[in-house]
Write a structure and sequence with these properties.
The protein has 5 helices and no strands. With 98 residues, it is mostly helical.
């Protein structure tokens, strides 16, 4: 839900790996890349998403998403957008209560 609030209605989806300056960014990028290749049905994808919790938590704890540098900001938003897209392969989690 936090990611969707930060992204708003649109965000860049491209990520320049050369701009991933923080360890938490690189960790999230690697986790997203790995999970993109997960095939299978609903249950398989849902189980695989549990592996994103740690990287997403560290990303929000350690990285200033809305950085002053517009290139870093766009890159971080793109990374967040890619992570969020993995959840949307299952369902729009922003509709869940709580």
């Amino acid at each position: 839900k936090r990611a969707k609030n930060i992204l708003g209605e649109s965000a860049p989806a491209e990520v320049d790996t050369g701009l991933l300056t923080e360890a938490a960014e690189r960790e999230l990028h690697e986790a997203v890349a790995q999970l993109r290749s997960v095939d299978g049905g609903y249950e398989s994808r849902l189980r695989s998403l549990s592996g994103l919790r740690g990287p997403v938590d560290r990303f929000f704890d350690d990285v200033l998403v809305m950085a002053e540098d517009p290139r870093l900001r766009a890159n971080r938003l793109g990374l967040l957008s890619q992570a969020l897209s993995l959840f949307y392969r299952i369902a729009d989690i922003s509709k869940l209560g709580g």
